[in-house]
């Protein structure tokens, strides 16, 4: 890692001309975050009034990842939401020039806390499930209450659309399936036809949609606070129920730690939007299609040798099967199987 | 005793999980090795019946197409279904079987679209049967840990 530490130090020196003697150490890659490479490190330097030290995070675009995302989306969203009430890390530098670290990257503060060990523990929030659950839903409601245009986020996908979010998003994920699907999946294609034939009502208002709001993508602290909501690279503008449906997908729902109805009530209070249960049902099936598309791109990246991230290989196999099975159960509920 | 593919692969997974992972101290490497071991276990569990599952699915699809050919209103599609019903697997390599499964599944999607458009009683019943068949195929192909 020492070469990379040196290169990061050189970059910081370039961006911080008033800092002297910048050094970077303790660099390590963090597992997870398969759509970006994530590193933590420590930076120390001298300022006019004495020494300074920061623990920082560097997020670098991978050679290939889960989805094709606009590289500066996450940085732009972090910056726009800094004072919104949604906890996000402070961001410092965005760099698109490949000369520094081969690929674009950005640097942000390392937030305190940790993600819940959701798949390996029955108590992923270490006795703070109620507090974490409340905040999980409140923060999502706060996000839904934001005016993306006022925050300068009209460049996000669908940022200038007034309506038709369900159709735009369905087309987006269907196109990724068309491009990357190695084996035709009639169940997923059938669900897409059902979704298109049974559109949901329009949202009360357009909202900033995180795109991957779930356990694992936020950090919590010992007092049960959520210190940061992370992984915004799939952020776009759309129907806020898309995030609600994604959050309660059975692969990562926190319903066993915090009752769903309490969560939806907290979301309604913060967002000022009543949950349309019929529309939410539509978005739950949509979430399955979206998940299958994401896992398909993961499998394609690994199969083509563009990535050797084992998380991509695993989700490419297990994730697809899980979500097709769930999709088939939802279609059975809709009477597709008689 | 023959060292079967699945036995060898499962053994490699166990070595990675039980002997290699505990010696590492880099968090990213530990996770990569753990996931690699899980992946190898799934592959080992899928090796023995990989051909059987694919041959069975292709056979189910061809039998279905034979029935559907007499139900669909579209003559061109009906002819394609009859042709597919008479076809056979080009070989027993997994890659060959997968290509054939994809060809048959594409035709299945076309059939489903036609049945949804027809919407008469026979079409509806066949459409529901296809969904149940897809559920059963998914269950049979699910990765085993």
TrEMBL record, chain A:
InterPro entries membership: ACAD10_11_N, AGP_Transferase, Aminoglycoside_PTrfase, Kinase-like_dom_sf
Keywords noted in UniProt: Transferase
Signal sequence, renumbered to the chain: none
Domain (Aminoglycoside phosphotransferase): residue spans on this chain: 27-268
Molecular-function GO terms, alphabetical: transferase activity
Pfam family of the protein (one): APH
PANTHER family listed in its UniProt record: AMINOGLYCOSIDE PHOSPHOTRANSFERASE-RELATED-RELATED, BLR2944 PROTEIN
Protein's recorded name: Phosphotransferase family protein
From TrEMBL, chain B:
Superkingdom of the organism of origin: Bacteria
Protein name as catalogued: Uncharacterized protein
Organism of derivation: Alterirhizorhabdus solaris
